[in-house]
Amino acid sequence: MVQETFDKAMPHLFGHEGGYADHPSDPGGATKYGITRATLAAWRGRSVSKTDVRRLTREEAASIYRARYWAAVKADELPAGVDYCVFDAAVNSGPARAAKWLQAAARVRQDGVVGPATLAAVRSAGAGRLIEDICDVRLAFLRGLSGWAVFGRGWERRVGDVRRLARQMAEASGRVEAPATTAATLPDPDPAGLDPAGPDTAGPDTGGSGRGLLAALAAFLRAILTGGRS
Fold first, then answer.
1. Residue closest to 135 by CA, chosen among 172, 87, 69, 174
2. Neighbouring C-beta atoms of residue 65, cutoff 10 Å
3. Distance between CA atoms of 181 and 184, rounded to whole angstroms?
C-alpha cells in the first residue's frame, strides 16, 4: 500500500470504527477509532485508563494502525485495492487472520505471515478476484461470531463498503484482472516454405538426382549387351 492509498483509506477506516465507545457486548471494551484499551496500552508500553482511550487522537491512532496493522500485512507491497482490503480486515479481525484470508485467496499455504511466496502469488493473480474472495471469506467468518446478532448489520455494511472501494482502487490502477501469461516464442516460419537447412536434412533424395542415376545405369547395361555398339 503506497502512502496515497493509506491516506485515502484512513477516513474510511475511522468512519467505520467510529469514535469512543464502551459497548457491553464488545469484548474489546473501551475503544476509540477502533483502538482498544489493550492495544493502546501495548503501544504506549504501560497501562492506560478509559480516560486515556477517550483522549486518543487520530494522529496517534493512525500511527498505531500503520505500525501494528499496515506493516504487519506488508500492505505497501500489495496491489492497489488488495492493500486496502487486507488492511481493513487486519484492523477488524487481526493481522494474522487477514493474512490467512489473503493467502487462501492467493492459493498458497495459510501460515498467517505475508512473505515472498504469498507476494509472488498475489502478483500473479487478479486484484479483482482477490478482493472478492477475501471479502467473501471475511463476511462468512463474521457471520459465525456470537456478536453478529448485535453488530452484524454494521459489519456487513462495512465489508460491502470495503469491497466497493477496493475494487475502485484496483480499477484505477488497471490491475483488476490477472496479468496475461506470456506465451512461448515460436520460431518464425521460413517465408518461402522451404527447409532452410537444404535437402540434406530431408532424408533420401527422391528427386532429379535419382532419375539421373537410373538413366546412367541403363546406358551402361545397354553397352554391355550390344558390345559397345551405339
1. 87
2. 24
3. 9
CB 78 within 8 A of CB 1: yes
Element (H, E) at 158: helix 148-173
Q: Are 56 and 39 in contact (CB under 8 A)?
A: no
| pLDDT tens column, 159-193 | 999 999 999 999 998 867 755 443 333 333 333 33
Question: Cell triple for residue 173?
Answer: 490502477
> Which grid coordinates are listed for 170?
484496483
- Contact between 81 and 166 under an 8 Å Cβ cutoff? The reply is yes
Which secondary-structure segment (H or E) carries 32? strand 31-32
Mean pLDDT, residues 115-129: 96
Strand partners, 31: 21, 36
Task: Report the 3 state secondary structure along 114-140.
Answer: CCHHHHHHHHHCCHHHHHHHHHHHHHH
